[in-house]
Write a structure and sequence with these properties.
With about 140 residues, the chain is mainly beta. The chain has one domain: Immunoglobulin-like, CATH 2.60.40. Helix content is about 15%, strand content about 50%. It contains 2 helices and 10 strands, in the order H-E-E-H-E-E-E-E-E-E-E-E. The strands form 2 sheets. Strands 1, 2, 3, 4, 7 and 8 form a 6-stranded antiparallel beta sheet that branches. It has a 4-stranded antiparallel beta sheet with strand order 6-5-9-10, with no helix packed on it. A hairpin with a 6-residue loop joins strand 9 and strand 10. The two termini are about 20 Å apart. About 5% of the residues have low confidence.
């Protein structure tokens, strides 16, 4: 699979409204985000994007879009800071890597998890050229596959 295939796959994950895909709008921006078990990816795509496929490895996929006056959206660059917390209040920072494919811009942050673990994520999103950041918090449960 080529980079367009991954872009299409990740975009489909966001747009299909899967149980794990979410979005939040603030001001002129909409942020799409989701936690995905790495085993969802084919070995070729995982290797291409330096994502380790394992039943206990996952990644966050985040896209930041500017909402245009005509109803369309435009992908924008942003600074992301993320943290993963478990129920024992142990936290781990998540580093994000920007991926650009054609006009698409999204961010991938990798992390480990335990089977059936409930995780709480805190994500600070600061679109380029904007003052201040927007904080998104959500919880999800991931399963080893």
């Amino acid at each position: 699979m080529n980079s367009k295939s991954l872009s299409s796959l990740l975009l489909a994950l966001i747009l299909c409204g899967s149980a794990f895909a979410e979005e939040q709008t603030f001001g002129d921006y909409t942020v799409h985000y989701q936690a995905v078990n790495s085993t969802f990816l084919t070995p070729e795509i995982a290797e291409q994007y330096d994502i380790v496929r394992s039943e206990r490895r996952a990644f966050l996929n985040v896209a930041v879009l500017r909402n245009e006056a005509d109803g369309s959206t435009t992908p924008v660059t942003a600074t992301l800071n993320g943290t993963k917390h478990n129920l024992l209040q142990q936290s781990e920072p998540i580093e994000f890597r920007q991926v650009r494919e054609d006009e698409a811009i999204y961010y991938i942050g990798r992390f480990d998890f335990s089977n059936a673990e409930i995780l709480r994520f805190t994500l600070e999103v600061h679109p380029e050229g904007q003052e201040g950041a927007h904080t998104i918090e959500w919880s999800t449960q991931l399963y080893a596959q």
